[in-house]
Amino acid sequence: MMKEDSCQVELGVKVQRLIKKLQKYDRDEHKEADAIDQASAKRKASCLLRRL
Predict the structure, then answer these.
(1) Which residues contact 51 (CB under 8 A, 6 or more apart)?
(2) What is the Cα–Cα distance from 25 to 48, expressed in whole angstroms?
(3) Domain definitions of the chain by residue range
(4) Within its chain, how far is the Cα of 43 from the centroid?
(5) Mean pLDDT (whole number) for 48-52
């Protein structure tokens, strides 16, 4: 049980970091490569959230 809780906390931290990255991308003017990274990060975030 404890291991599962710590895993969820770790996932939560990773999701928070992804959200911060996405917000940074939204603020910055980004090149096409960054836009691709952003789309990839959004897919990863939604995938992680579905697993929770």
Answers:
(1) 11
(2) 19
(3) 2-51
(4) 8
(5) 77
